[in-house]
Amino acid sequence: MDALVNGRRLKCLTIVDDYTKKCLDIPVNTRVTGHDVVRILEVVAAFRGLPKSIRTDQGPEFTSNALTYWADQKGLELLLIEAGQPTQNAYIESFNGKFLDECLNEHWFGDVAQAQHLIQ
Known about the structure:
Elements (H helix, E strand, L loop, with lengths): L1 E2 L5 E4 L2 E2 L6 E3 L2 E2 L4 H15 L4 E4 L8 H10 L2 E4 L9 H13 L9 H8 L1
Parallel strand pairs: 6-7
Antiparallel strand pairs: 1-2, 2-5, 3-4
Helix pairs in contact: 1-2
């Protein structure tokens, strides 16, 4: 998470493949809902295929009915790390820390479009 120069919140959804450790996408917006996560994962799945499971923290976008229903329909297992246990998802936590240091802390974003462009 970061903020625009006007103080408005900026959310970055980092999507990383646990096996290859490759960052597949980092969509950026002022908010991310469960429906947004489903839409984004459908786009990623269109060129990468669906995984057997998806590991997330317990944010509201990941515990939403929209994502749970979609995962059930696709036969995917949702793996939620325990609250307050970031080491259960250590690689993404490390990635997010580097992303924060090397990208988000290095730029002032005037608007969402500029943030999307610079982050991509």
